[in-house]
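hey so i finaly got around to running the thing on Chorismate dehydratase from Desulfurobacterium indicum. pasting the sequence first so u can double check i didnt mess up the copy paste, my clipboard has been acting weird all day
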Amino acid sequence: MLKVGKIEYINVLPVYFGFIDGVIPFEYQFKEAVPSALNELLREGKIDISPISSYEFITNSEKYFLFPNFSISSFGEVKSVLFFSKLPIHQLHRKDVWLTKSSMTSRALIEYLLKNRYGVEPNYYYYSMKEGNLPKSATAVLAIGDDAFKFLKDKNFRFIYDLGEEWKNIYDLPFVFAVWAVRRQTVENQPLSVKKIYNKFLESKKYGLNHLKKIAARYAPRVGLTEKECMEYFKCLNYDFTNLHKKAINKFAQLLGFDIKVEKFLLSM
Ligand SMILES: C=C(O[C@@H]1C=C(C(=O)O)C=C[C@H]1O)C(=O)O
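ok and heres what it spat out for the 3d tokens, dont ask me to read them lol
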């Protein structure tokens, strides 16, 4: 049986809602975790298919093939990848910046932006909400997913930067935070199962995108959002993988020093 990853944030619900709501029969095993944990599980072969950080794909691309037509992206504002700071961003040189351990993509993006766009090199530290090791004294904090909504209630941070917006302002491209990857080994050993589950994911996403209101009504309160805020959030997110998204991920890879053409890694379905 294929083992399938699922990010524990509401951002993926539109893709999984057909399965969750019981309309798409699902005979697989879900493993639910934060993105960095899913990256590791897939890399180590403990699961077969999962949304992973685009950074994980970029840095370990030889291990994976990608589902065509799936990503977690935004064109401009994303709302859930936020950099909170007590100082304006260009004043963070040698200040204490805390990055979430749950992310790989957004960590790489904020580090890139701080160094190359804002010319600052802070002291980096790493926290996790589960460990609860983020000190009150942190000058700035990167948060992703449902955690980002919690930080919005913390009025200590005067300056808030949305990384989807930051990226668009510079490159006028969407930003691809995550992609759906399959281990190469799984594709080689079980090609028909992979094709079958891909089609189920397509159906589940179609159902989810047609039932966003139902998702928002059920899940918004769990993350402290109103239904309206949750709908606005879903409108910022995009789950496709168009040519523009491919261009964007290639650009991000190039900026990080990796010469990758994502087109070469797409599964032909
Ligand atoms: C938009 C988001 O995209 C995500 C960000 C990721 C990362 O930074 O590595 C990975 C998966 C996605 O959950 C989010 O989590 O808010």
